[in-house]
Amino acid sequence: MKNLSRLLGITTIVVGAWISGxxxxxxxxxxxxxxxxxxxxxTCNAGLSCLSDTCVDRGGNGDTGGATGDGDSGGTSGDGDSGGTxGDGDSGGTxGDGDSGGTSGDGGSNSGGTGGDGDTGGAPSAGGNNMGGxxxxxxxxxxxxxxxxxxxxxxxxxxxxxxxxxxxxMKDSEPVPDDDLSHTDLSPxxxxxxxxxxxxxxxxxxxxxxxxxxxxxxxxGGTECEWSAVWGGGIGVNLNETGGEDSDVNAWNATAAxxxxxxxxxxxxxxxxxxxxxxxxxxxxxxxxxxxxVGSTSVDLSELRHNCFAGGVATQALDLTQIEQINxxxxxxxxxxxTVTDFCIDSLDAY
Length: 351
Fold this sequence. Notes:
The protein is mainly beta. It folds into two domains: 60-137, no CATH class; 140-350, Jelly Rolls (Sandwich), CATH 2.60.120. The protein has helices spanning 2-23, 254-257, and strands at residues 49-51, 54-56, 140-143, 149-150, 161-167, 170-171, 174-175, 185-187, 199-204, 232-238, 261-269, 274-281, 288-292, 296-300, 305-306, 323-331, 338-350. The strands form four sheets. It has a seven-stranded antiparallel sheet, with no helix packed on it. Strand 1 (49-51) and strand 2 (54-56) form a beta hairpin. It is globular and about 70 Å long. The relative contact order is 0.11.
């Protein structure tokens, strides 16, 4: 009997070890795959992006959804067919655990709403956010190249405003006083309501001295060339404009809108001039800018540098909560005219 007991004991140990060995065959997390750590160079497998050291599908796994979730139809930041804010449910809500919604959890909902752990609601548990149910990972289309107005009802980033023409020959919608300088002359001078697209053509003025004579661009004192008076022209757009007969322009808050940059497409010929993308704050004449090429470009707001044309160390930072407008400036140069032909803004997205 003792020998039999020992034999049974040994058999038990062997079988237990075999079962334990089977448990260890679970697949290991693969670096670079969705939901797992990024590679050491902050990249992931094809189709994935590295965010906060984790590989995610920025486009979502559904038909129109966001990322981080499995809901079939709702909210923001989800993997479902049309959104969801970090939720796993069938039809939306924000981060919920129940059958009919919930904020912050593991469910989502069959019919949307905010809730918690029950079938029809409950209390929020961990938060989340919703920017109009459109997904919190861009890009978001703002303008498709048609017309000269961005309607706030057509996007979820709170951006609305008109395109306008930039010219150094104009100041506060009025012609500058007569002088001896060669100012920029673009056509049209302004966009009408029925203008089909924001496009300009014309001549960028040459920077000269105050008497209209050639100046020395190497004058480090900056007193000879009239750079501030003849700076060029281009196209701009307001980001928070009321519209209507007495339209009012206000500051737009990029931080609150969840926007970190803009993607855009431009076309046309600048005749050799430099194109500069810049942002301006409400009530300020300071420029925050970077040079770009004609074509398709993306610019992070963090790339915009105070007086990028001046060199040296930037002394101011762009206040992302106080952006009034963005501009595409065709830059003037000393003693040189540039002919602009059909320069257009063809598209604009935020991300």
